[in-house]
Fold these 3 entries.
Entry 1:
Amino acid sequence: MSAKPQEDFPLGESIPQGAAPLESILCTEELRQRPSRPPDYERENRALVALVSALADSPRTIFETLAKTILDITESDSAGLSLLTKDGKTPDVGGERFYWPAIAGMWNPHVGGGTPRNFGPCGDVLDQNRTLLFKHFERRYPYLLPVAPAAEECLLVPFYVAGKAVGTIWAITHSDRHKFDAEDDRLMASLGKFASSAYQALAHIEDLKIQVAEREKAETALREFAKSLEAKVHRLVDANVIGIVIFNLEGAITEANEAFLQMVQYSREDLVTGRVRWTDLTPAEWGDRDQLALAELRATGLFQTHEKEYFRKDGSRAPVLLGGALFEKGGSEGVAFVLDLSEQKQAVETLRRVEQQARSIVESALDAVIAMDADGIITDWNKEAEEIFGWTRLEALGRRMSETIIPMRYRSAHETGLRHFFQTGEGPVLNKRIEISALRRNGEEFPVELSITPLKFGETWVFSGFLRDISDRLRSEERLRRSELNLRRMTETIPEMLWSAAPDGAVDYCNARVLEYTGLAQNDIADAGWMRTVHPDDARNTERAWAHSVRTGDPFQAEFRSLRGSDGMYRWCVARAVPLRGFDGFILKWYGTIVDFHDRRQAQEALRNTQAELAHVNRVMTMGELAASIAHEVNQPLASIIASGDSCTAWLANAPPNLERARAAANRVIQAATQASEIVQRIRALFKKTTASTTSVNVNAVIEDTISLLRHEAQRHNISLLIELDASVPSVRADRVQLQQVILNLVMNAIESTAAGVDPERRRLVIQSALSNPGELLVAVKDTGPGIDAQQAERLFAPFFTTKLQGIGMGLAISRSIIEAHGGRLWAEKNEPHGAVFQFVLPTRVQGE
């Protein structure tokens, strides 16, 4: 981007040898990934108001205002426009070079320079028709090397006029102090669109001025035509420069040129047949104006130019400027000159809408917007200003600014600053946001945030001020500061390890307890430094769990071994964190804790081992109590073996031996031996001390196997044993031996309770299985014993609580711990009308898991 047009890169020259490829200097995709600051709509509104104000001047003012606005709002070092042109001053999409009509910032001395269309950053933007971010673009375009200072980054956005890309707007940084982000892209595109609209509106206004000038020429021509001969009139009619008609006072149009006929959409055939009459073309509301024109014609021979409307053939209306005269004073025939005002009216309406939109922006602004002229008199005052200061708009207009909103002690400085600006063009508060005190109508002083923008209309200065009442904000900030101070004091003194992280997961704070525990400094543990304290074997899972929470917003929890700084020992810890969300649902902060549960983990492990030992002891004791029943169960198949063996021997001793019956007896021996073996295996499994092993278990089969060991015990006490098993219950995930131990304990307790002092006539025991609730399998053991006291129901499950003379009080406690370890519940209730019910539920296993 050279400083002068003659220094442009030659248009016909090809890409220089050794020039860097375009992809090497583009970093547009990085722009989308950079952290983006939140939109500052207040600042954007001021920029738009500045562009609206430029409408009153010229295209050059619009471009200069746009360049200054981009420089300010993107916090860049240089900003400006590059526009295609053929004549060096007018934007033209067919131009072969770019020129710079306006530059703000450090490259301002290069105004008027430009770059070639076919080889340059601006041309690349138009070729791709999108925003591009360049880094050190002189590596590709060597003609930019002499331009100083060099560009670090350049953000270019297409600039459109009438829907066509005719150039770019751009912002440049000359150092790495600031990097552009997506908000800069959005702001530049928004400002570019608004500036384009303003430029086009201004162009319409210029056209309107030209058309008004043409109208004045037409009026002059009208007076000249009135004096000319009829032949000259006809030649003028045929020229079709403006609409010309020959009319009579009776309402007829006897002749008209094509310009007029096109204006009202009638054909020459309509004219010849007499269907085109000026009285019919005129809407009723214009009748009085026509009567005034007729009176002028009769009195003076001509009528003054005026605006009115004509009906078109399709019923729509055409606004026109009309003037005319009679060929002869006192005659009835004359000529009228008609100028179509449709385009001028549209331009005026466009300008009105732009002004209305600008006013709407000011009135809807969240800030008080106040305008002041060069004499310090208030010229504008929006609704927010009425709310903040207590003066209505009508009351404020015409008052001195210093006497209306500025406290007495600052008024002199205000007047001095105004004079200083007119002398130097500078001011300490211009185009800056500062905090000062302001004055309400009731005399109350309050803090405001103020920004003043000077605007020049011709030779007249206007100052636009944006003020925001920050009383509530300052009070909130003070409350927040005190709250944060109290929170910091609390977190530093609380005897727990606390930490926090940014929304992206970077740890930004750990309290003193964390630092004492790890032996690290705050800077060492921040961001991802805390991972250095995690045991290498646990680091990957911990990092993965934290990344998942940061990505999804789910609460974080991870168990890992952490290095304790005092002794260099890895100890088990659990870290938890939850997100704090704003009103919009986005995460503002993560807050978490770290708890050392190493000692508790070891105690739990010891407790599990102790419980396993107690469970084994409980099974052994129970099997000891069942010794007689076990012996009976084993004796039955043994007796069958002996009897079948004797039969086999006898059949073999026959002469001849009866082999068929001997074979049958031998098979009975095998069956009985197998039965005895299975009984012994089940008993060994209960006696065996094993670790928990979870498999798919058929609960009904476990109940039947367990009852087979207890059936004789029930018969010995004359107890009726009833099994009601629901065949539809699914399998569960459980340890078969532990589940059998629970059922064994519950049934043995029920047998002992029912046998103790209960009439043999009502000694009854029921074992049931069923699906109680969706996803839960229920097992119930009901007896008809003496029952349980409601207050005693929970105490039954307490360790070492027993109602038996020989018991140790661990059976039910162990049974409950086994069921809860399987995700279930075990409880006791009163059985109606007699006895007790012990029941437990287990979560069912979904088929296909």
Entry 2:
Amino acid sequence: MKLAVVIVNYDSSDDLARCLASLHRQPARCDHAIVVVDNASRDPGLDRVRSAYPGVRWLLNRKNLGYARGANLGVAAVPADFALILNPDIEVLPGAVDALLALADARPRAGIVAPQLLGLDGGVQHSARRFYTLRTLLLRRTPLRRLFPNSRSVREHLMLDFDHGSERAVDWVLGGALLVRRQARERVGPLDERFFLYFEDIDWCYRMWQAGWEVLYTPAARFIHGHRRASTQGAFRREFWSHMGSMISFYEKWGLVLYVLKKWRRPLGVLLLWLLDMAALGGALLVAYLLRAALQPLFPEQLFPLAEYRALFLFAWLLATAAFILLGRYDRTRRRKAMSASGSLTLAGLVSLLLLAATFLSHQRLYSRPVLLIFVPLFWLGLGAVGIVYAAIRARMGRDDLTLDRTLLVGSAEALSAWLAARRDLRRDGIDPVGYLCDRTPGAPEPGPLGAGDLPWLGPRDALVVEVARHRVSQVLFWEAPRGDAAEAEALGTLLRNRVRLRWHLVEGGLLATARPESYGGFSSLVLEPRLGARWSRLAGVLSDRGAGLLLLVLSGIPYLVARAGGAATTRFTWRGGGGGEPVRLNLIPGRTGRPRPLWWQAPLGWDLLAGGVELYGPEASSGPVDAMWGDLACAPEQFEPVPAAEAGAEP
């Protein structure tokens, strides 16, 4: 079939009747079918409309599934080359549908073609838009729009510099009327059903451009659109909150800030739990002190001012941090579930016992023992509250899809299809799939979408790095063993450096020495986590090099000047070290024997360290360990050989 017209309806029977009437007055000249998806409407007029149009295919949902899911159901119900998705408040003008189809046939790279929309008064609606930025989101979709109604950013977003009277490619178009090509839909996937209402059209257009398809706007086809913008009619309307929720979901999906936060959410989760723990500890100590102060008449000793307890607070935080780390409170597996009451009591009791012992052994009579005794049950209650709050935050993030791993699948279509059929809803496994990669057999047709048509083929395996960056992927799930070639090794290294998690199906993945076994998605897997410490280790190495160079320059300055006054000149030496690695060339001051002088004469080496010419640590270090090289300079100068004059200027 050439065309499927899909209308998603909810409590809009009057609008729906006008829309269907216009479609019957102005039918498309090609083979077509009309599908109405009703999201459990409650208005009494729906039965009347159904009886008036028996030739329409009706899909009646038992509950409101949202606009995106309703549209997907309608498109899947009638396979066709094109799907025209309409709001019920659309009226088709003469020749409009045929004009859309003619343009789509003439422009084969057009994934979406949208008509010109007219208001009920006949005026042109600004239905073509530029993509949102964070600034335009705030100025357009929050109360800030009342303060800056004529902002330049908003005007550019609404394309007010465009007369909407000519055909052109645009970032995105309003979803009131969209003609979508089947091949494009299969390549980018259906409408994203995380958007219950609003922003599903923006997301779809964005994905079209990402996959190389165009979004076209044309005034050659004109529809009437009774656009009410219910989302802007006050914060007490359900549509407003649906719009805000979809806006957050859209920015979570494509915004750089939230993308980075999601990639770092595990260390950030540890930081959040630690901050909650320290807040509970500090609050418990403060309340214990205040209770002791309130009970002052019952005690003979005078309570010292709160300022005197500052050191105790700092010591308690350090002590609790060390104890919690050693006891595994911040381990990944333990953070998944709330700690039991007995576990919280154990932690609180241990920290309190250590505090009491420390103040007793140090004879710190400054701190009141009753304060520390009162602190124990308060800290226990605080840790219990922390567990509840932390679990609630994780649950809320889970409901909002903020804990899902955006995942790219890599493997054969057959293996992935079998797994998708067994798992069905991957979101229960914490997976937000964006598509799959597999190599295309020469001469064979392009691989199609998998699952229920919602997992598109994104390209061959060689496109791994590009597709990960394009779709904001945080995890890659492989169904095939690493090929072991240099190109794939470089790609995997790039992904790990960018904090992308790599996971292999255990049966196919073989044994990876640095991978961690884990049950995932109904199968056993091996996972390589991005190493948090790699960049920090590199930074620490750079800082240690610069610090060592500066210290050596300061300490060797005077001996160096004495040596130069005596006629000594900097000479190039080769140091081989004791590890059998590549030789390293260093600028050193020689003694009378021709061997390097001891370390504290070597200002040139300090300068090389400070300038970055020599590295003491790290995978790319140009020398061995600092103790070996410096020890050789002090005790074994024979390890250094002068570089021949002919080679002195050549770098290895």
Entry 3:
Amino acid sequence: MNACPSQRWGAALVLLLAGAIVSGCSGRKQVPFGLQDSGAPAEAATETEEAATEFPASTAFGPNQVEVGVAESTLVLQAGYALAALEIDLDGHEPTDALVVSADPQTARLQAALPRGLDVTAHNVDSFLVPSDCIEPSAEIRQLSTSLVGARVTHSCETGPRTNVWLATIEAQPRVRERITVLPPNERSKTPIDLELLVEDQDADGYDDVIANVRIGETLVPLAWLNRPGGFARDASQPEATLQALADSAWASLDADLRGAQQRALAVLDAFVALCRESGAARIGLSGTHGIQCQRSPATARALSVAITAAVRRGNFVRALELQRWWDGAATQPTPEERALTQTAWRKAKATASWRTVSREATPASLYFRDTDTLIVDGRAPRAIQLSSGAESRLSEAEVLPPVRDPGGRFAVRGVRVTCVGFEAEVGPIRGKQTHRVPIERPTSGAPCRTPVDRPASVFDWAVLGWAPQGLVVASGDLLKVVPVNAFGKPAGNPIELRTGSPLPAPIRGARITPDGSRYVIPHPEGVLLREWRGGGTGLWLRPPDWNSVPGELRSVAISPDGKRVAVQKGTEIRLLSW
């Protein structure tokens, strides 16, 4: 009869012990610390708030605050002014210590302040330089766990906010475990970026690990640092693991949900650019470095194939060419399957062109229009073709003028060469043999040449469209630049990249662009793209249905002065495209 009360007391004791264990673990719940309030779900709000209230936030100061109260003493800053301070026990002894964030126009600092009698001993934990265009700093410090604190500093810069987050240890001499920087938007990365720090024991080893949830637009990438005896070790599987899942989803849904697949693929590209050093425009920095070293990213290459295919299917041909340039980078090399996907898309793209044979030429020739009805074929046997009648007339060497000539008629572009220093235009007198080189584009990799290179550029590489009073108008795919040259055809300044729809220099003398610059042609292995520059850069896809029935690759292309006809040399045939 006495067993039941004993059992009840035993059960109560078990429940009490379980409650104590759960209570003791509550300090290890995730504690968010972000660029802005993350808006946690209502069901989880109570637990998060309970964990967060255990660690008070810092005190923010107004402008020009140079004195900070620490316990019953005062810290007088030797440089700059205080932005925020957090009262915290750093050394395990009374009185309470403090962490202080301060700044001046050139530098932001994190300091530890420890009272010693009536004095305060302060030492620098870390600092970073502030760009000259960044002003009006603000700061916040939060204790994230029993062993870690986060300090955030935000500046207002010319192109947007710049944020630095210190992750520091709580000890008598605090150490910075990591400093994460979120840079302002740039030309290639304009997507909003949010950052939230969480602390939890991810691997159940009894030590606090750190997760930085980086949100680029709608894409959440969890960057994790595992607490190891030698320090924090970043989980190298990210961001590739997240990008791969998103890219695979886009690939699988391409046929069923074209718009959704395109959005997911572009989200991968946005995240890759913002996070990875290899993109050349990263906006996330770790410990003062620029971008995360992602190396090769198969996920981004796969996302590119989806994005290119979707752009072609939707008729955004210039955008597709822009995306396809990414495949030139070592980090985004596609697989044969991914290349085949885009090739099929180009072949099936809606085109409104027909063509007819006007001549034949066994060797590569240079094509250009003398006028709207006369096509010049500068090959083994130079000749002029009257398109209305089909009549051909042989031309002497003196009658054949280079299509890309300077306004004074003295110098001409003989071709474009690929060398160890990049792409260079070969320029010389029209009637002379001497030439010199004009740089067009430097190599993107920056790696030195192991084997000397000096060969003609292909029709799909950088090409000189024409020569205007301001310089050479050059193009590669969707990219358009003006290379300034002087009266002698020598370099006269750095190349100027032209934005879509911006005014082109005129008049332009060349084979692949109209004199007023309103239209120019972009060669592609599967056809020709006619770009309407004044129409916002839109493109018209010119690919006759029997394009593949003519053997050989595209060797030369030219557009008539009125922009209504295009001549091509494909293999050994010279054909005239109309639409």
